[in-house]
Amino acid sequence: MADRIHITTAIHYSNGPPHLGHAYEAIVADTFARHYRRKLGKGNVTFVTGTDEHGQKNRDAAVKAGKSPREFVDGTSTLFKEAFATLEISYDKFVRTTDDTHKKFVQRMLTLTKERGDIYFKDYEGLYCVGCERFYTEKELLPGNVCPVHKQPVETVREGNYFLKLEKHRAAILKRIAEQPDFIRPERYKNEALQMLTEPLEDLCISRPKSRLDWGIELPFDDKYVTYVWYDAFCAYLSELEDTSIEALSQVLPTTHHFIGKDILKTHAVYWPSILLAAGLPLYGHLNVHGFLNFGGERLSKSAGNIVDPMALANKYGPDVLRYFVLREFVYGLDGDFTEDRIVERYNADLANGLGNLTSRVLTMATKYFGGEITAEFPPPSLQDTDFYEYPGSLGSIVDSPPSYQAKAAAFLECLHFKGTLDLIWERVGAADHYIVVTAPFTLAKDQTKLPEVAKILANLVEGLRLIAVELEPYMPKTSWRILELLNLDEATARAPYREAIKSGHRVKPAIPLFPRIEKKAPSPVHPTAR
Predict the structure, then answer these.
(1) What Rg, from alpha-carbon coordinates, does the chain have?
(2) Which of 150, 236, 255, 497 could form a disulfide with 95 if both were Cys (CB 3.0 to 4.6 A apart)?
(3) 203-241 residue pLDDT tens
(4) Residue 133 has what pLDDT?
């Protein structure tokens, strides 16, 4: 494992506001980043997201809105930043492809690649989808030359353009996939990428003439052309790092995890590797591909006009509730069907009746019986073979001991099994509830002579709640720290080794309702028209 890691989402196209699909990708990448900051240290993790602001779709959307392209993308970029702030997305860099730093980096990459002989000019005729902003071959299209993504006929475009050599790099990409089986994951997407690479590749058009489109980054070697929007956007993964020298990027790229949707697999499994190799750079470390979120059985998309607003959901239920729902409800890599009814069901069952109720019961008993003070002493770790005192049904007899539990939770997350980690955490919640039932501290407390035994039970429960809160932080950061605040623990103490945070004499705070039960309400706002 490298001692640093670089994480990116796709650079989100800014022809409309963010929808739940954007939020899902950002939440997944953020969870991954938060985990690795704990593992490697904050200074060894970079997390990049941003907005893709050039291209024909943005120009057309600006014209439709009666705005200049710059004015339009300024507004949309702000919407993404606001949404990500609401969702607790802890990015280190928010890149806008209209930033001067980014423009200069793109032009430097183009110059370097042309000098290496991998860019050339030719006249061309091809089938072009405005929505995808890319040329298709006839084999890739649906019958009638219809785009497989937007379900609209493509256009025939004839013009002179600059091209990037792709076939030259196909063997190197195939070699990497063969040598690193988890280069593209889950495996189904690796197999799809291999299928794309089975036959010789047509070279990639990387320019647009200004006579057709002038909203883009000018080619450094021909001022009559702008850069193809995909080439431009790919560079955003690297353009605003502190050091963008070839030497520095050669160190960063092997540690890079890209998080993308399955609809842009080809661009990231074929085009982006070729762009890197053509510039003399190594390939990225991993391409992590998620499925679509569907709404009522149909894919959430701007073109379909069924955009679920993540801001409205976060404001209605809380950002951690939305984060929890998408990470536990959907298996990474597969499509999932979103309904607001399922959010409410998950909320009440898992959060209100589960984690929230457990936290309230533990803190209420501590306050009622001991004024919030932990009075029991844990025996030395060397005397402990299980993770809790030996009561029937103790947490140690139901789930793994803390070191094993924490290692398993980390392993699940690192292999993109986000749901698996949350399932594991909720096993702990269920085990703690069962521990309360079996040990019955509320019954024991009626006998004053049993209070020392009750004190031990509560010490165990408080320590168990600490472990749950710490493991929950990458997934539900606000909830994690609300619980740790109620346990009266600062960050350093909260992350202390097992049984070294809660000492005799420590005081916890009174309970507050974390997740009051809710009734089903009206559906979340859906943007009425496509943007």
Answers:
(1) 26
(2) 236
(3) 999 999 999 899 999 999 999 999 999 999 999 999 999
(4) 75
Return the CATH fold of 5-290.
Rossmann fold (3.40.50)
As a dihedral over the C-alpha atoms of residue 238, residue 239, residue 240, residue 243, rounded to 10 degrees, the angle is 80
Cβ–Cβ under 8 Å, residues 103 and 136:
no
> Residue 491 and residue 476: Cα distance in Å, rounded?
15
Bridge partners for 45 per DSSP = 5
- Residue spans of the domains in the chain: they are 5-290, 340-494
SS3 298: strand
**272 exposed, middle or buried (CB, 10 Å; 0-12, 13-18, 19+)?**
buried
What pLDDT was estimated at residue 236?
98
- Which residues are registered as beta bridge partners of 156? 127
SS (H, E, C) 31-71: HHHHHHHHHHCHHHEEEEEEEECCCHHHHHHHHHHCCCHHH
CATH (one of 2.40.128.460, 1.10.730.10, 3.40.1190.10, 3.40.50.300) for 340-494: 1.10.730.10
With 0-12 / 13-18 / 19 or more C-beta atoms within 10 angstroms meaning exposed / middle / buried, residue 337 is middle
